Amino acid sequence: MFGGGIGETAAGxxxxxxxxxxxxxxxxxxxxxxxxxxxxxxxELQASVVIAELQSGAWLAQNWRPITMLTFVFIIANxxxxxxxxxxxxxxxxxxxIPPDMWGLLKIGLGGYVVGRSGEKIAKALRR
Length: 128
Known about the structure:
The protein is an all-alpha fold.
């Protein structure tokens, strides 16, 4: 009496689990594909902005990223090289505060710089 009902119920759960797995995996794969397309498009747009800046001919447009990166390098060098050394001799050595978002900007800036340099080299190669 109980054997048939339990067997049918267990088979139903197995079928339900298989259907759920298929549904979840299908949506997950589809979503992952959309995310990858969005990331690829975003990368293309970022590269086009950097290439446009480099090809603009304006000194500031071409050099603002390197200037910003050099400023960040100076802040990091000051805090981790100069400040420890100067604090040995000077009680009030200047230490520059690092804003919390600076590391994120540094990563984005370096990424843009790498993409920009690559784009610049590609543009020069295409002009030849």
